[in-house]
Amino acid sequence: MKWEVVALGVVQGLFEWLPVSSKSILMLLSTLLLGYTLQQSYSVAIALQGGTVAAAALYFHRYLMVFRYRGLFHFLVVATAITGAIAAPLYLFINRYLIRELDLGGSALLIGALLLIQIVVRRFIGRDRSRDMESATLYDAVVFGLVQALSVLPGVSRSGITVSALLYLGYSIEDSLKLSFLASIPANIGATAVALIFSGNELSMLDIESFALTLLTSAVIGLVTIGLLIKISSKHGTAIQILMACIAILVGVAYIHTGLK
Length: 261
Description:
This protein is mainly α and 261 residues long.
């Protein structure tokens, strides 16, 4: 089973940062490769976010120094509190009642469309209005927290939906990626904790060694992916945004074409 769990780690490390729901892909793979039920696959997908937490924490360690970036710290605290208050009960409700009823393809298509529309809007508004992380406000944190909470839904990409929200709030693509990735650290710690506490039965089929190997793989792949996206976005922001939109749309079409919900 080693190569299967490594594959899950690669998928989590790569797709956590793209506008494609890593949860949905992990659910599909763990169902096909490991024979898990949808409930088990969903819980495993949430728990595996712990590996990409480590990747983000390593990459952004200097931003996590509270006294150096106090405004960013306040943004993360408010956004995470709002996300947790909404996402935790939503996760429990979905895992019990709605896991079979969600439209994965439609969610991916919507995120892709929002990213493309934002490019057009920014062209008309003017590129000189792009904001950076230091301009984050309480309003931004509240909006971000509400939007991020929706990422607990299978089919909704946390990176895709939060980057879209930040772009509409006027942030540059580079700083939208940075803020989104930074916010993933406390959000995914909470998500992993909730999955471990409330879904122990669903996670029991994955032994400790396999779970650790998957987390390690996702951390390594995640660290490389973050670096590439941030580096490229600093020089080719619009191109990265178009690429993210196209990936989301293609995955959405694939979901719909194959009949997956």
